[in-house]
UniProtKB/TrEMBL annotation:
The keyword Membrane belongs to this UniProt entry's keyword annotation: yes
Superkingdom of the source species: Bacteria
Membrane spanning stretches: 12-28
Name of the featured protein: Penicillin-binding protein
Keywords: Membrane, Transmembrane, Transmembrane helix
Taxonomic lineage from the root: Bacteria, Pseudomonadati, Pseudomonadota, Gammaproteobacteria, Enterobacterales
Amino acid sequence: MNGWRGKRGRWLWLAGVVLFIFLALWAADKLWPLPLNEVHPARVVV
């Protein structure tokens, strides 16, 4: 697989995917609140 632009590009792509998933979960939670009060302590801070 020579299509990758080195390790840096791969990690950048991976970080982008993780960030996209996190933002998608955050947006979905804002639109349709999920019952994560007991499970997710970070919701209290945010």
